[in-house]
Amino acid sequence: MSQDPNSPTHTENLDLSQFGTLLRAHRGSLSLRQAAAEAGVSFSTLGRAEAGAQPDLTSFTLLCAWLGIPPSQFFSPMAEKEVAPIDEAIAHLSADPRLVGGAAEKIVEVLRGMYDNLANAPADRPVLACHLRAAGILRPGVPQRLSSLLTKMHAELETRYATQQP
């Protein structure tokens, strides 16, 4: 399940239901031509916008400025999209221009592997884990004894840390 790293975390809906009414009210007794000149748009654009048509982006921003209303007032959240922290990190890595030649993909592979192993770690899983490349050539029982020793060291360090002993 891969998400597009360039997709927004939410989408918004442009609601212009009151835009035409606001334009007409702001125009007052001015003619369409006078108000359009004042707003910096053509009179036909102003007339269509007053009638409820959606103007182009430039005209929309000019008309909003003329009204003294931020364009964001006409946007309403339509759908929230949940983005997992790992996907957000991957999006940043994928967008980094310094990572070239497949470097981002290699980092993503390692990062995803680490995340998958650690993010949903059960509570009863050992706090300390050790991967020994040489485990295959060690004598039987050595990896278990080493694990036991490291676990004891870890417990002692936790105790010292908790009591702030050097």
Summarize this structure briefly.
The chain is mainly alpha-helical and 166 residues long.
> What is the averaged pLDDT score?
80
State the end-to-end distance.
Answer: 47 Å
Q: What is the name of the CATH topology of the largest domain?
A: 434 Repressor (Amino-terminal Domain)
Shape: elongated
What string gives the helices and strands in order?
EHHHHEHHH
Which range does the strand content fall in?
Answer: 5-15%
Give the number of helices: 7
Structural class: mainly alpha
Query: In the CATH hierarchy, what is the class of the largest domain?
Result: Mainly Alpha
Q: Which residues form runs of ≥5 with pLDDT under 50?
A: 1-10
CATH-wise, what's the superfamily of the largest domain? Answer: lambda repressor-like DNA-binding domains
How would you describe the overall organization of this protein?
- It is a single chain.
- The protein has 166 residues and is mainly alpha-helical.
- It is built from seven helices and two strands.
- The chain folds into three domains: 10-80, lambda repressor-like DNA-binding domains (434 Repressor (Amino-terminal Domain), Orthogonal Bundle); 85-118, no CATH class; 133-163.
- It has helices spanning 19-27, 32-39, 43-50, 57-67, 85-95, 103-118, 142-163, and strands spanning 10-14, 75-80.
- It has a two-stranded antiparallel ribbon with strand order 1-2.
- Helix 5 runs antiparallel to helix 6.
- The model is unreliable at 1-10 (pLDDT under 50).
